[in-house]
Structures are given as C-alpha cells and as structure tokens.
Inverse folding.
C-alpha cells in the first residue's frame, strides 16, 4: 500500500522535474510536439507506477529511465510497422480505368484513317514517328512551311472529328 503523504511529496517532486524531462525528451525528438508527447507518456507511467519507486534512489534517474524505455519501445514498434519499407497495397494509389483510353484510342485511329492521304502521311511521319520537319520536307518533296501547314490542318480535322477544343 502506498503512503499518501509520501505519494503527494513524490508528485510534487515529479512536477518540479518536468522541465528536466522536457529537455531530456528533446534529445530523442527534434519536434517539440513529439517531445511533449513523450514527457506526457512518461509522467502517466510514473504516476501509475509510483508504488514501484524505491525511496532511497534518485527520482530524476527513475523518470529518465522510464522515458528512455518508453522511447525505445515506441522506436522498435515504429520500425517494425514502418509503412513504405516494403511494397504495400495501401501505398498504391487508385489506378484509373483504362477503358476510356482504349475507346479514345480507337476513335483517334478511326479519325486518322479518314484524313486525306497527304495530311495523314505527314502527321504520321512527324508526330507519330518523331521525325523532323526537314526530313519530312525532303521525303514528301515540299517546303517546311507546307509540312507544318499539313500537320496543323490534320490536327484541326482530328479535333473536329473528336469534338476536341484545340488551344
């Protein structure tokens, strides 16, 4: 059984040691909120187990030991349960459905097939194959301005067929 007068005296000493506990908690956590949480948890454990304190020992050392053990336990648990270390289902975002893209690709393919041949050929050569305007002009035997014009008209016709706004 705990002596009430002894318990009240210990509680008063614990209150006096709170600044020292805060300073010690800052050695474990840079974030002041986390340090304050550690102090609070240490105080709760100390007050709950006040009967286990041996009267001939230093109260400050006892509290620091409780704090260190609390931090180490939390650290071990956090390391064991750390998210993101392994590939986890919860870390994978929502994947949008591919059906819309498949339908849009088929619509684009159909719209491209309806373009006049001279527009379609230049569009495929420059836009799809990634060739330069100079190469396209040489291949199709026309000026670079004509190549750019054909690509622009092809894009406009595709946008009109696909009900898209070109901006």
């Amino acid at each position: 059984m705990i002596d009430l007068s002894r318990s009240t005296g210990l509680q008063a000493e614990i209150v006096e040691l709170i600044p020292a506990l805060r300073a010690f908690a800052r050695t474990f956590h840079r974030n002041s909120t986390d340090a304050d949480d550690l102090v609070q948890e240490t105080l709760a454990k100390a007050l709950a187990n006040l009967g286990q304190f041996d009267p001939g020992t230093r109260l400050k050392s006892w509290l620091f030991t409780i704090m260190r053990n609390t931090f180490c336990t939390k650290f071990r648990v956090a390391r064991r349960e750390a998210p993101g270390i392994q590939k986890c289902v919860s870390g994978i975002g929502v994947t949008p459905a591919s059906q819309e893209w498949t339908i849009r690709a088929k619509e684009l393919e159909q719209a491209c097939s309806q373009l006049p041949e001279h527009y379609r050929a230049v569009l495929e050569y420059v836009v799809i194959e990634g060739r330069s305007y100079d190469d396209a002009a040489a291949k199709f035997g026309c000026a670079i301005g004509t190549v750019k014009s054909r690509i622009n008209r092809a894009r406009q016709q595709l946008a009109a067929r696909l009900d898209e706004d070109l901006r």
